[in-house]
Amino acid sequence: MSTPEDKLLMEEIKRIKNEKSVYIIAHYYQRDEIQDIADFVGDSYAMAVAAKNSPCDTILVAGVDFMAESAAILCPAKTVLSPEPAATCPMANSIEVSDVLKYKQEHPDGLIVSYVNTPAAIKAVSDICCTSSNAVKIIEKLPPDARIFFIPDENLGSYVASKLDRPLDFYPSSCPIHAAVSKDDILQRRAEYPDAEVLVHPECDPEVVASADFVGSTAGMVAYAAKSTANAFIIATECGIMHEIKQSNPDKKLILAKEELICSNMKSITLEKIRYSLENLQTIITVPEDIRVKAAVALEKMITYSS
Ligand code: SF4
Question: Which of 6, 102, 154, 186 could form a disulfide with 170 if both were Cys (CB 3.0 to 4.6 A apart)?
Fold first, then answer.
């Protein structure tokens, strides 16, 4: 619920962004009030496409650093702003370029499929990127006999491997928020809300994924909740998604799988920081051109393979 102070700030932000012609793109895990002032709200795949199609030459990305970087990679002629460049993703930062190069040396014919939750330098040494909404579709289109290094989310990789019944090589990393949900959390919530359907993000542990009624990306959950006849949902992903689901399903009950599903990096972005960023046109996110060009190939390939 927005406070009166929030409402004033939101009006001010709308005025400045219109005056300066800035397009605001936000992730579903952003604070409710930030989702409300954004021109576009979506998952990381939709955010990348929205950046490419932005009607303005300046884009403000309300999300963690790799999301702003993806916009800068895909839109070299546009100015990309981050209201909080220190907002990062621990999973994205868990893998080094040297880990990828080592794999390539050991498996010269192997393909590197990197989740968009990676820094630009990792995308630059990848063959193709993916998100949780298109990972299955993309790997399905790769040569069936190719050895694949799926980085860096082992849980998402396990989900894709099980959906396609295809072995993948993994990197030992995961999202600390999603990995915190246990099968017992789901069982407890099911006991409390027996009529609720359980919606689980594929970044969760395979045991949690196996206990779901629906497994999908944030965008997938939003779409599923809208079409399901269930009146209540137990949600196993970051709490920010509840805002979007609630808006299109005001009469349905939403229950988080556990209370602590909050990404502090996503929540470090505030209305105040967005106002400052718009007023001062800071912080401009850039990617060194040699890395950008290579990373753009992997991201553009993802968009092509997803359509
Ligand atoms: S929710 Fe997880 S994957 Fe997403 S930004 Fe936060 S730590 Fe990274």
Answer: 154
First to last CA, the chain: 36
Select 92-174+291-306's CATH number: 3.40.50.720, 3.40.50.10800, 3.40.605.10, 3.30.43.10: 3.40.50.10800
Pocket of ligand 1 (CB under 6 A): 29, 64, 89-91, 117, 175-177, 238, 263, 265-266
The domain made up of 178-262 is a member of CATH 3.40.50.10800: yes
Instruction: State the pTM of this model.
Output: 0.96
For the CA of 263, the nearest atom of ligand 1: 6
* Residue located nearest, by CA, to atom 5 of ligand 1: 89
Closest ligand 1 atom, residue 64 Cα: 5
173-215 confidence digits (pLDDT tens) = 999 999 999 999 999 999 999 999 999 999 999 999 999 999 9
C-alpha 255/C-alpha 253 separation (Å) is: 7
Q: What is the CATH number of domain 4-88+266-286?
A: 3.40.50.10800
- List the chain domain ranges: 4-88+266-286, 92-174+291-306, 178-262
DSSP annotation of 284: B
Ligand 1 centre to CA of 20 (Å) is 30
- Average the pLDDT over 123-147 and give the result: 97
Segment 60-72, tens digit of pLDDT:
999 999 999 999 9
Do residues 30 and 63 touch, judged by C-beta distance below 8 A? yes
* Cα(155)–Cα(212) distance, integer angstroms: 14
